[in-house]
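RECORD CONTENTS
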Amino acid sequence: MRAIFSIVSLLVVLVIVGFVVKKQLGNQVMATPPAAGMPAVSAGATPQAQSQQVQQQVKDAMQATMQQARPMPADDK
């Protein structure tokens, strides 16, 4: 009797976890809007050309970020 109760309880917990995971994954897919700051990739280009365009955009964004000055911490001594 105790083993049956344990198995049923485990199945109930698995069903609840399954529903939560399904809900979270559904919300995640719906909640990802396209990036507004990134220029569009050519739709008619080959996959290799699209990949190179994306790589170049990321490289340019990283270089622009690295050029920004970092704020210096205040000396509180």
Observations:
- The two ends are 68 Å apart (CA to CA).
- The chain has a mean pLDDT of 82.
- The first helix runs from residue 2 to 30.
- The helical segments are 2-30, 47-67.
